Amino acid sequence: MTRIRRVFVESLHLNIRDDQVPYEQMLEDVAILDSIALLEFVTAVETEFGIRMEPALLDFDFLRDLPALAWYIEHRIEATGAGA
Questions:
Q1: What is the spatial distance between Cα 77 and Cα 82, in angstroms, rounded to a whole number?
Q2: Is the pLDDT of residue 48 over 90?
Q3: pTM of the predicted model as reported, rounded to 2 decimal places
Q4: Residue 55 belongs to what domain range?
Q5: 44 pLDDT higher than 90
């Protein structure tokens, strides 16, 4: 979770610390998430965790939900053996 929050803050160049993004908070409550911001965030997540996110799951509702995203990343890492 800490890594996801760090990637979120860094990829969007936010002027906050990653620990200021609560676990339960929807990401659009922290920053404006337009299509370009989402693309930058997804690319940064894929790079950080060594995974490829399935295009069918890349919708706004899924990507803004931090707990759901953390669950997805964890399962992708387990499935691919990536992220070590």
A1: 5
A2: yes
A3: 0.78
A4: 2-80
A5: yes
Please report where in the chains the tokens 């996110």 appear, as a residue: 53
Contact 33, 66 (CB under 8 A): no
Which residue is listed with tokens 């997805």? 72
- Side-chain half-sphere CA neighbours of 28 within 13 A: 10
Domain count, the chain: 1
pLDDT mean across residues, the chain? 81
Q: What is the CATH number of the domain that holds 62?
A: 1.10.1200.10
**Tokens 């399935």, located at residue:** 54
Return d(Cα 30, Cα 41) in angstroms, integer: 13
Dist CA 53 CA 67 (whole Å)? 16
